[in-house]
Give the backbone structure.
Amino acid sequence: MPIGLTHLIYVLIEFLRIPFDVIRGIKRRSYVISFGVDAPKDVTWAVVSANKITLAGRPPITIDTEPDATRPGVFKGDVSYGDKRLAFAYRILDMRAGEAISLEIIEAESDPAYHYGSDYSCAIGVFGDANASSVTTTHDLTHERLATRVLMPISQVASAARIRRTARQLAGREVHASTDRVQAAIITGALTFASFFALFGPSVAAMLLGVILVHELGHVVAMRWAGIPVRGIYFVPFFGGVAVGDGVARTELQRGLVALMGPGFSLLPTALLIFASAQSGDETLDKLAFTSAALNGFNLLPIFPLDGGHIMQALLSRTGRETLRAFQAVTLFAGIVLAGWVGDLLLMALLGLVGPSTLKRSDPSTPRIPMLTRSDTVWLSVAYAASFMFYVLSVVRTW
């Protein structure tokens, strides 16, 4: 089974376990994944055991730690990527050179970004020979926040991808990043098509997948305009899709534009479908136009993490953090009520999972990215309102 498919299934299973763990009060969790690496065992071991290394990816992540002379087995330093530099400290619990290493994160001396939970330890085993290798990683921790239950498996899979790519590069083996991205899109697209097929049948499944693809391409175009490297497009079974970038927006204008361009990129195709269906009377075209209008219009609702929520976050950037937090709380509650009313349990679960992290008070010392200017606020507001009204009228027209 392709590694991308294996890890997607792994993440989905972990997501499905979250509500059951919460209901049963289970906080201590163990996360285990294995993956193959197209590199010799000694090269892979050098990557996973290094205290100084730059891990491949966008952006590259550099780990720079030094042994603490006063505490045997303790390493302190930082992890940097882009313009961020985060404190990082860990203690080696056990190591069998060339085979396995276990360590624990020292929370008090590490940046809050690494506080996935208390008593956080990690074990890594490396197997293989001079041609290829495999890695098994195990993360054990006690969760204290709901958001970390979502972030932990995603972070684990992302780290696995960086280990694989870095080891391949050090071994002098070509890394086909674009091929990997296309393969991931095809695999996740096939799974998503199958999920929609089971729910709605083949024709509706094909329509949904096409509409989602055009929508995500809009985000990709905007990311490239903003200078944000694009990792790829990934489809999510039973839900939709997401365009993933290697980095974040550097200004609120970029945030708003990237969010708006998903539905914005679909404006012309939707209008052409409505025109074509009106001229031909073709029922299939009419259904496709309705599907495009409904999905893109729904995405523009001002609820985080929908596109409309990101746009509103950019528009409200001038009002202050507490005003934004209050707005997100109201719209999040409204979104959960709306999802329950229409019977969308997946959306209810998603909003419930992101709620705690969305409403968490931000650290006042954290620097904010540049806000919208007054003129930016005006044109983004007009573009947002016009796009939303277009989709509302389109839904009414094609209902």
User: Anything to note?
Assistant: The chain has twelve helices and ten strands. The radius of gyration is 23 Å.
